[in-house]
Amino acid sequence: MSILPKKNSLGFFEIRLESIGGLGANLAGKMLAETGALGLGLNASNFSSYGSEKKGTPVKSFVRLCDPNVDIRDHSPIEEPHLVAVFHEALYKTVNVVSGLPADGVVLVNTTRDFDEVRRDLKMEYGTLAIVDAMGIAVEEKTKVNTSMLGAMFRICDFLDPEAMRSVIRSTFEKKYPHLVEPNLRTFDRGYNEVKFKTYEVPEGAEGKAFKRPLPAYGYATQPLGGVILNTGNSLMKDLSGSRQGFLPELNTETCIHCANCDAICPDFCFVWEEGEDKRGRKQQFLRGIDYQYCKGCLKCVDVCPTNALSTKREEVGFAEQNRVAQFFGKR
Length: 332
Prior knowledge:
Shape: globular
Number of helices: 9
Number of strands: 11
Strand content: 15-25%
Low-confidence stretches: none
Distance between the termini: 59 Å
Mean pLDDT: 89
Helix content: 25-40%
CATH topology of the largest domain: Pyruvate-ferredoxin Oxidoreductase, domain 3
Radius of gyration: 23 Å
Strand order of the largest sheet: 2-3-1-4-5-6-7
Structural class: alpha/beta
Largest sheet: 7 strands, mixed
């Protein structure tokens, strides 16, 4: 008898992880497939999709599970997953994370917001929404988001054996990083215990989210003339907000001494200055704030600040937009 709760026409239970590079989705997919194969005797496959410079850019990891008598001959990206796990809420801006989700599918989101807010942003009409503060858990345990997300996924996929994943965590970390074994086990357990669920009733005959396969921007009929540079990397249009891995610098102007150490080390020129006069009437540049549009959250500025005027803040939805001091055209 199959232990899989659902299967598609090929006999697969499919999971798609939506993340940005650096949060560990690729490793999470590998560990999840390994647990299914070694811990439960299922057939399993996993692979990821990302660009050459993957850190901070969109990453997808795909996991297929099926009964041991079913061969996995499909190695294409998963278009209609039973479960989608969203590692980073900034992906909403550029990626349709719920594309292809069936009407009764499950979406897991790393967030501190409530169900209805997340549901609205996802444009999710029905199905099950699961939320977990995976980043908060990872910060407290000094680990990564991926292990807490795995814990939440194992709670959702109750056919999976948590003890099998604990064994995989031990074998993954104990040789090279033995000091990380126990923290990651705690992180996994907390993700498992702290995830929350809310199901929005699925009406009879409801359809899921249609999958939209990305197509090339240009073809033989629409290719621009040779030598035309359509995207010049204009600094005005650049937006690095999707690269942040959950943290950004916060400026306290009361303790800032305007030494410009932060500006000297910032790789993306995020700091905004204005000319003023000091107490003796001498002209000087004063730091007004941070243009978070260009900030990728590397936090080098926090490390070099001599007065702790810059501190690390966990990013909350809307904070960057509300506190941004724009480089161009004033504050927006």
